[in-house]
Specification:
Length: 431
């Protein structure tokens, strides 16, 4: 068995596009001062690495990661790719966009498609703001086919997760799950039976408070997890997601050649890259149509000197280790870090993404620990790989190809973040 984080796939892809001199971070190694920020995938860096999902536990010190944009009630009807900013353009000003993306998204009628073309890593959409307890309703349809995973999760910087995942060969089952600080757990998953998730929209809800998590499918509570039930007598901690979280939706190939046997088995087998959907419209696809986020109050007694940012005050990742401030959440450029955010300078002078030096360095790198015990790196193998940002930094925007438009109708625009060069490397990853 493996930890089936919806984001694991990206670590596998990214492993092949590392800058040569990548520095890794994890349980036994914090990042050095020059590249102080430990990303979600366990690689040290600056710029984007210090924004969303920067892990305070393994970063150089507590000032390295930028403060997290605080919760704001939002109601998004997904209709236009203009509602999303590429992660390669995002410097942490959450007022610029509620949502950021990596991979492939496109417009379709009154919704957004997340797409996974042949041998690609699919797509990930994230909220720019964090909630620290709240309610999220995501209206979506999953993709289909063995090996194809569609997920809607809350992801915390210390690698906790509150998950919904669908395996494309089991379209009447939504799996619910949770993780605490990336620790592998084998019995936290529970299934919810629904009508076909490819044919029908469902509203997947998470109601998250200090004391319990409810998973609601179409408004009906399907599962409740109490904080009390997560007490670990050995570590004397509640293994309960308890620090600020972003909302993420992803489409990814769990059944990828090179993934762990356990992951492939869980995913229902290898992805069929010659399936009906690959012929027409030419990619696997999932729909997102609406997202509602309602913020709940932070814990009573939290240290508060403002309202707009969450800041870690300790590396433990406990709820008592967060304060609320009005600190700036954005960087002046992709060269800056939390030590030196550069957010007071005129940012129109900052280097643009296109000149992000990390892009120029893309190459096949070595990495410690091989591809992990299960082929797809898990967040407990804390030497995981980053480059999520570098990956996206190669973004370009393409107009939808005719095949796509013909197949599913009124498609307007395809945003593809893979340059041809990167796509070549990705294909390599699939071999
Ligand atoms: C970190 O070090 C501990 C103790 O030496 C070891 O048990 C553990 O496996 C190491 N973790 C990683 C991710 O290397
Ligand atoms: C973290 O390190 C930076 C660079 O050395 C330093 O400027 C900053 O004060 C340190 N912050 C903390 C909280 O120690
Ligand atoms: C953040 O974005 C908003 C909306 O685009 C803009 O008005 C504001 O000036 C930006 N702030 C900075 C510091 O760039
Ligand atoms: C999950 O496994 C742990 C030990 O591995 C056990 O203590 C716990 O009770 C199990 N939880 C459930 C819900 O079965
Ligand atoms: C949930 O359903 C999947 C099939 O989608 C099955 O493989 C798995 O064993 C089920 N898990 C549980 C906990 O029943
Ligand atoms: C308690 O935490 C330890 C360390 O993470 C873990 O090995 C153990 O399985 C946990 N116990 C339970 C009952 O989950
Ligand atoms: C989201 O919020 C809007 C506005 O309050 C409401 O009309 C809509 O029904 C909500 N959608 C879901 C799925 O909860
Ligand atoms: C975590 O924080 C709570 C208060 O929010 C506190 O009661 C508890 O002792 C803390 N646990 C640890 C392990 O620090
Ligand atoms: C920032 O610099 C640009 C170009 O140099 C200039 O046009 C703009 O007025 C400046 N903005 C501020 C707020 O100083
Ligand atoms: C842009 O980046 C280059 C290379 O890192 C640096 O030398 C230059 O000073 C930067 N320019 C600005 C305006 O930040």
């Amino acid at each position: 068995m493996a930890k089936f984080s919806s984001l694991n796939w990206w670590t596998l892809v990214i492993l092949f596009i590392q800058p040569i001199a990548a520095v890794y971070c994890g349980a036994n190694s914090t990042c050095p001062e020059e590249t102080p920020c430990c990303s979600q995938y366990g690689e040290c860096g600056v710029g984007s690495y210090c924004l969303g999902a920067c892990d305070p536990r393994y970063s150089f010190n507590l000032s390295a990661c930028m403060p997290l944009p605080a919760c704001k009630n939002t109601h998004t009807k997904f209709t236009s790719t203009d509602q999303f900013l590429s992660t390669s353009k995002y410097l942490g000003n959450a007022s610029e966009a509620d949502w950021i993306y990596d991979g492939h998204i496109l417009e379709y009628e009154d919704s957004i498609i997340m797409a996974m073309p042949k041998s690609s890593g699919g797509a990930v959409v994230s909220s720019t703001r964090y909630l620290w307890y709240g309610h999220v309703d995501m209206t979506m349809k999953t993709s289909r086919g063995q090996g194809v995973i569609t997920a809607f999760i809350l992801f915390l910087n210390v690698q906790d997760e509150i998950d919904y995942e669908n395996v494309g060969s089991e379209l009447e089952v939504m799996q619910t799950n949770y993780y605490y600080q990336g620790i592998l757990s084998y019995n936290h998953s529970t299934n919810v039976t629904t009508s076909n998730t490819f044919d029908n929209y469902h509203v997947l809800g998470v109601d998250w408070t200090e004391d319990r998590i409810e998973w609601l499918v179409d408004g009906k509570v399907s599962r409740t997890l109490t904080k009390e039930s997560t007490w670990n007598a050995t570590t004397r901690q509640y293994a309960y997601p308890q620090t600020p979280s972003r909302v993420q939706i992803s489409l990814w190939p769990g059944g990828a050649v090179g993934a762990a046997p356990g992951t492939i088995a869980w995913a229902g087998g290898l992805v069929d890259w010659d399936s009906e959907d690959m012929k027409n419209p030419g990619y696997y696809y999932a729909f997102i149509s609406e997202a509602n986020i309602t913020c709940y109050d932070p814990p009573v007694g939290v240290v508060k000197s403002g309202t707009s940012a969450y800041v870690y005050t300790n590396k433990e990742g406990n709820s008592s280790d967060i304060k609320i401030t009005d600190d700036k959440t954005y960087l002046g450029s992709f060269d800056n870090t939390g030590f030196n955010p550069g957010n007071d300078k005129n940012t129109s002078n900052a280097n643009s993404t296109e000149s992000d030096p990390s892009v120029a360095n893309l190459g096949v790198g070595n990495h410690p620990g091989g591809s992990g015990s299960n082929g797809v790196t898990t967040s407990s193998n804390t030497y995981t790989y980053s480059g999520f940002m570098q990956f996206a930094a190669s973004s370009s925007i393409h107009t939808a190809s005719t095949g796509i438009a013909n197949a599913i109708g009124n498609t307007k625009k395809l945003l593809a973040t893979l340059s041809i060069a990167i796509a070549g490397v990705i294909s390599l990853a699939m071999l």
